Amino acid sequence: MPLFRRRRDDDLDENLVADGVEESVDSPPDEGPFSAPPGRPSGPWDSDDVPDDGVQRLDLGALQVPVPEGCEVRVDVQDDQVVAATVVDGRSALQIHGFAAPRSEGIWDDVRQEIADSLRQGGGSAEETDGPFGRELRARIPTMEPTPGQQMQGQQLQPARFLGVDGPRWFLRGLMTGAASTDPNQARILEGVFRGVVVVRGGEAMAPRDLLPLRLPREALQQVADQQAAQDAAKPTLDMLERGPEITETR
Fold it and tell me: Which of 15, 45, 115, 123 has the fewest beta carbons closer than 10 A?
């Protein structure tokens, strides 16, 4: 899994871009302007309304993710497709997904209810509460925890927070786990990450709830290319397979 870390006092590399994003999407003529919900005036941002705050962000295509000092970013890949970014801060993590959504209405109310129903049916729990981004879920997720010997033991309940924000034709979901899911002080950095995400929705037609397309940053692509080159260099060539010296024994 590609891994990116921002060490303290280190400058971010060229894969981290400033928030200014030139792409804009015109509203369809039959739809009214999107009215931002109470949780979004200070972020997460759409590419058309991001302020000039000087924050540098990791360019993942549809998502621009800030990387605070001391944090690392893991890119989640399924079937060769980048599907999410996970920002890790010590013992806490925030997984971020971006989805397409209708412009005329948000989907977080429905998604929140579906998540809560699914958790309860699976043996977990979920409770709605007000958070810094509006309504959110405080949950306990069923999970199988390994013992020190790596043998799976009984089902455990892991605390978590589900965050959601509706934007213009997109929906951003965050899953916070670890210490930040229960300790407000531990959550501040990751809440700031979620608030600082910029969504580049693009103008293509997408069905509601489709994942927004993400991509690996240039640094990760270079790492993959270097690894492939090293593997190719280790493969035997025709020269290596030429017949070597022989010793003939005469009896």
Answer: 123
CA trace torsion 194, 197, 203, 208 (10° rounding): -10
Expressed as residue numbers, the domain containing 163 is 43-232
Establish if 6 belongs to a structural domain: no
- Give the Cα separation of 138 and 127 in Å (integer): 5
Q: What is the pLDDT of residues 172-200, one digit of tens each?
A: 999 999 999 999 999 999 999 999 999 99
State the SS3 of 173-205.
Answer: EEEEEEHHHCCHHHHHHHHHHHHHCEECCCCCC
- Two tokens, residue 82: 């980048």
**Overall domain count for the chain:** 1
**Which residue do the tokens 């979920």 mark?**
126
CA–CA separation, 187 vs 94, rounded Å?
Answer: 10
Tokens standing for residue 185: 């002080």
Establish if 11 belongs to a structural domain.
no
Question: Which of 51-60, 134-143, 148-157, 239-248 bottoms out in mean pLDDT, i.e. has the lowest?
Answer: 239-248
> Given the structure tokens 């970013």, which residue do they identify?
73
Task: Tell me whether residue 14 is in a domain.
Answer: no
Coil, strand or helix at 90:
coil
Residue 159 CB burial class (10 angstroms; 0-12, 13-18, ≥19)? middle
CA gyration radius for the chain? Answer: 23
CATH code, domain carrying 152: 3.40.1000.10
pLDDT in tens, 74-112: 998 888 888 999 999 999 999 999 999 998 889 999 999
Number of helices (H), then strands (E), belonging to the chain: the values are 3, 13
